[in-house]
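call fold(seq) -> C-alpha cells
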Amino acid sequence: MKVLIAFRSRYGTTEGCARDLAAMLRAPSVRVDLARTRSVDFTPFDVVLIGGSIYGGRILPPVTDFCERHRDALVERKVGVFICCLAKGAHARAQLEEAFPTWLLARTFAQAFAGGEIRRARLNLLDRLLVRRLPQAKGDVSLLDAAALRALADAVNSLAES
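ret:
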C-alpha cells in the first residue's frame, strides 16, 4: 500500500500537519503541495489523504480544484480528508462539509479536524487585519490537535493491516 498526501498550506500549518501525518504512517507516503503541483499520477497510490486550511470559512481553492479535476481517480481509491482551522465542534464539522464536495465526503473512510494556529509574524497585512477580529487571536495561537492526526494515521494504518 502507498499513500498520497495532497495538501495546500498558506502559512505552513497544513504542511506541518501533512509532514507529521506522513511520519505516523507505516506505509510509504508521498506529500504533494497543491500550490506547486497541478497533475498527479495516481497509479502507485491506494490511499489518498487530502488536506487544506480554512480561511474565511472556505478551503483554499487548489484543494477544491484538485478534488474536482481528479474525481475519477479519487472514486477508485480510499480517501481521507483533513482540515486545519480554529473552529471546533459543530462549526468545524460545518467547515469540513463546506470544504469538500459531497460526492467525496460520502465515500471517505476518515475525516479529521487537525486544529489550527495563527503565527502573526507569518501573516500578510490583509490577514493580520482580518485576524484582529477573531476573539481567540489576541496573540499567537496554537490549537493543533495531534490526537486527531494520530486517529487519521491509525485509520490509514488499519487499512494496511486488513
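The first helix runs from residue 13 to 24.
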